[in-house]
Design a protein that fits this description.
The structure holds two protein chains of two kinds. By secondary structure, chain A is of the alpha+beta class. Chain A contains six helices and 13 strands. Chain A is elongated and about 65 Å long. Chain B contains five helices and 24 strands. An eight-stranded mixed beta sheet of chain B has the order 23-16-17-20-19-22-15-24. Chain B has a seven-stranded antiparallel beta sheet with strand order 7-6-9-4-1-12-11, with no helix packed on it. A seven-stranded antiparallel beta sheet of chain B has the order 2-3-10-5-8-14-13. In chain B, helix 1 packs parallel to helix 5. Chain B is elongated, with a radius of gyration of 20 Å. Classes of the chains: A alpha+beta, B alpha+beta. Chains A and B meet through strand 3, strand 4 and helix 3 of A and strand 18, strand 22 and helix 5 of B.
C-alpha cells in the first residue's frame, strides 16, 4: 500500500492510504487512527479520519521546538517534524502487524414506515417491492461505518444492499428530524441532529446518537463500527425513547 | 473571586460566547466553533489579564447593548463598533474599568465585521466538550447554545485584583471609565492588501489560467451575503477544473478554500469537519483573522506564498502574542 503525506495548510498533515473506498484502505485508516489515539505526539491537537485518509492537526509552534538533524531547505520545518512523526507511526504499525481495536457491533432499533418513515412507501414503489420487503432487506445488510462527518456522529455507511438503493428526493426537506434513518443512492445513514436534507426517510431510531453531555464519548457511533438495524414497533420505540430521555436528564444534572 | 451580573439590553445582530474552539472533537463530526478572529480574541484576553484562550463575546456587524456593573473590567478588540458609555467613546484595545453602573452601547463598524468584548475573569457558562464556544446548530455551548438576546443575564467571575490595579495605575477618561495606556498588536480591517494563501491539496486539478489568475493578487473576489461563521461564498471569475473530477470526502481546515460550481468558498470556524469539493488554496493562518474581518460587499484578492513562508509568519505572529502576554503581565501584575 502506498502512503502519501501532504500538508493541509501550516497546521495539519494529511496521510493518505489509497484512492478508493475499500475495506483494506479503511483498515489502514483505522489502525493509524488507533495508533494516534494510543500515542498522540507532543504538539498534536487532534485528528480526523476519513474514507481513505487521516489528517493530523498540530501546533506548528510546539513542533518547531523539536530538533531535526538534517532539515530540508525550503520545506516548512514543523511540517517536516509532523511528517517524521507520522512516518514513525506508520512504521510502528507495520512492525506490529496493524492491530486496531476490535470492531464494535452497534445494534440500532428502527421503527420503519408510518410517520417515522414517510418515504418507505415511495422506496417500496420505486423498487416494486412491498414495504415489508424493504424493511427485511434493510435489516439484513452487512454495514460498516467508514467515517464520521457532516454532523456530530453522522455515519457514512457502506454495505446497503443494491436492491434498495434509491436516489435522493428531488427537493430536500427543510428539516429532517433527529434519529431519522434514510437512504440516498447507495448510502444509508442516521441523522443525529435535525438538519435539512434530501434523503429518503424509511424509519427512525429512538437512540440518541449525539450526547453532548458526555465529554469523553459524545457520539454513539464511531468510524470502524459495524452496524445492524432491527425493526421495532411504535410502542417499543416509545419505550426506548423514554429510557434514552431519562438518561439524558440524569446526565444534565 | 467575586461574581458580577451583566444584563443584555439588546443582543445586536449576532452576539455569541466564543473561545478558541472545541479541540479534539472533530473526529466525532463535532465542529470546532470558536472565534473567527482568533488574534483579536487573544489580544483582548491579554488586555484584561486573562489567558489568550478564555471565552469572550463575539459581536457581528451590529453590536450589543449591555448593562455593566461598577467594578467590571472589559476590553473591546477587533472591528471598531464605535462603542460608547454615557455618550463618551470607549477606547478600543485597552482595558477599561467601569467606575459606576453604566450602559455600554455598540454600533456597527464602518470597516470590519467582528468585535470581541472580553471581561476580566470567566464568563460563567458551562464548558461543553472542553469549550465554552457556542455551537448554534446543535444548540450547545455558550449561552444556552444560542446568540444573546435582550433580557439575558451573564455572570462574570473575576478577581478583584485587576479592578484594584486599574484604580491604581489608570487614568480617568469619563465619570464612568478609567483606562490605561496600552499597546497591543491588532488586526487590521484593511481589505486592499491581498490575503496570503498557500496552494490547496487539489490545486493541480485546476487549469493553468485559473491558477495564474487566482493566485496573482490582481483578480478580485467579492464577499457575498452568504458569508457566515460556517463559510464565506465569494463571487468572481469562474475557477475551472482541467476536467470534471470527483473527490472522496476528506478533512478540511479553518481557512480552506474549496471550489463548488466554479466559485470559491472559504471555510470558517463553524465549518463541517470533512468536505468533498476540491481545495484550490488555504488561507495562511497569519492572515485568517484579517480575512475573518471581511464582510458582504468587500472585495479581496489572494497572493500565493510558500508553505515554509506561511509557517514562519504564523510562528512569528504567535511569538508576538507571547510577547504581548509577557508585557500585559508586567503591567497588570
Amino acid at each position: 500500500m502506498s502512503i502519501n503525506f501532504s500538508p493541509l495548510g501550516e497546521a495539519a498533515i494529511l496521510v493518505s492510504f489509497g484512492s478508493t473506498i475499500a475495506p483494506a484502505v479503511h483498515d489502514a485508516v483505522r489502525s493509524f487512527s488507533y495508533a494516534l489515539e494510543r500515542q498522540p505526539f507532543a504538539g498534536m491537537t487532534e485528528y480526523i479520519a476519513a474514507y481513505t485518509s487521516v489528517t493530523i492537526f498540530y501546533d506548528p509552534v510546539v513542533l518547531a521546538k523539536e530538533t531535526l538533524l538534517n532539515p530540508e531547505e525550503g520545506v516548512p520545518y514543523s511540517y517536516q517534524v509532523a511528517k517524521l512523526k507520522a512516518e514513525a507511526i506508520v512504521r510502528s504499525i507495520d512492525d506490529k502487524g496493524g492491530k486496531s481495536a476490535d470492531a464494535r457491533v452497534v445494534r440500532v432499533p428502527v421503527c420503519y414506515g408510518g410517520e417515522y418513515g414517510p418515504d418507505l412507501a415511495d422506496v417500496a414503489r420505486y423498487h416494486k417491492m412491498t414495504e415489508q420487503d424493504v424493511i427485511e432487506t434493510h435489516t439484513s445488510g452487512d454495514y460498516l461505518i467508514y467515517m464520521i462527518g457532516f454532523a456530530p456522529g453522522f455515519p457514512y455507511v457502506g454495505g446497503l444492499p443494491k436492491s434498495i438503493a434509491t436516489p435522493r428526493k428531488k427537493s430536500p426537506r427543510l428539516i429532517i428530524p433527529e434519529g431519522s434513518v434514510g437512504i440516498a443512492g447507495e448510502q444509508t445513514g442516521i441523522y443525529p441532529i435535525a438538519t435539512p436534507g434530501g434523503w429518503q426517510l424509511i424509519g427512525r431510531t429512538p437512540l440518541s446518537l449525539f450526547r453532548p453531555d458526555d465529554d469523553d464519548d459524545p457520539t454513539l457511533l464511531h468510524a470502524g463500527d459495524k452496524l445492524e438495524f432491527y425493526a421495532i414497533t411504535a410502542d417499543e420505540y416509545d419505550e426506548i425513547k423514554r429510557a434514552e430521555d431519562a438518561k439524558k436528564g440524569g446526565d444534565a444534572s | 473571586m467575586t461574581s458580577m451580573k451583566i444584563k443584555v439590553l439588546d443582543g445586536g445582530l449576532m452576539t455569541t460566547v466564543q473561545d478558541m474552539g472545541r479541540v479534539g472533537y472533530q473526529k466525532y463530526g463535532i465542529i470546532q466553533s470558536g472565534a473567527i478572529d482568533t488574534f483579536s480574541l487573544a489580544v483582548a484576553n491579554l488586555a484584561v489579564g486573562n489567558d489568550t484562550h478564555e471565552a469572550a463575546l463575539e459581536m457581528t456587524l451590529k453590536g450589543a447593548m449591555l448593562e455593566l456593573k461598577r467594578g467590571i473590567v472589559f476590553v473591546l478588540a477587533g472591528a471598531d463598533m464605535m462603542a460608547t458609555i454615557g455618550g463618551i467613546p470607549v477606547p478600543m484595545h485597552r482595558p477599561v474599568l467601569v467606575t459606576q453602573d453604566a450602559t455600554l452601547v455598540c454600533g456597527g463598524p464602518r470597516h470590519g465585521a467582528r468585535t470581541y468584548i472580553a471581561f476580566a475573569g470567566n464568563i460563567d457558562v458551562p464548558k461543553r466538550m472542553a469549550s465554552r464556544s457556542t455551537y448554534m446548530r446543535a444548540g450547545i455551548g455558550g449561552y444556552d447554545g444560542r446568540a444573546l438576546k435582550d433580557g439575558d443575564e451573564l455572570t462574570i467571575s473575576s478577581d478583584e485584583k485587576i479592578t484594584k490595579k486599574l484604580y491604581e495605575i489608570g487614568h480617568k477618561i469619563s465619570d464612568t471609565m478609567i483606562s490605561v495606556d496600552w499597546f497591543t498588536p491588532r488586526v487590521t480591517t484593511d481589505t486592499t492588501r491581498p490575503i496570503r494563501v498557500t496552494r490547496g491539496l487539489q490545486a493541480d486539478w485546476f487549469t493553468k489560467e485559473t491558477l495564474e489568475s487566482f493566485f496573482s493578487s490582481k483578480e478580485r473576489y467579492r464577499v457575498t451575503v452568504q458569508a457566515d461563521r460556517m463559510g464565506y461564498r465569494l463571487m468572481g471569475k469562474t475557477l475551472e477544473l482541467k476536467e470534471p473530477r470527483e473527490l472522496i470526502s476528506e478533512p478540511v481546515a479553518f481557512g480552506t478554500v474549496q471550489v463548488a460550481d466554479g466559485k470559491p468558498i472559504v471555510l470558517m470556524a463553524d465549518r463541517q469537519t470533512t468536505g468533498g469539493y476540491p481545495k484550490i488554496a488555504q488561507i495562511a493562518m497569519v492572515d485568517l483573522p484579517r480575512f475573518g474581518q471581511t464582510r458582504a460587499g468587500d472585495t479581496v484578492s489572494f497572493s500565493e506564498i510558500s508553505l515554509a513562508e506561511a509557517e514562519r509568519l504564523y510562528i512569528e505572529q504567535r511569538t508576538l502574542i507571547a510577547k504581548a502576554a509577557t508585557a500585559a503581565k508586567l503591567v497588570l501584575g
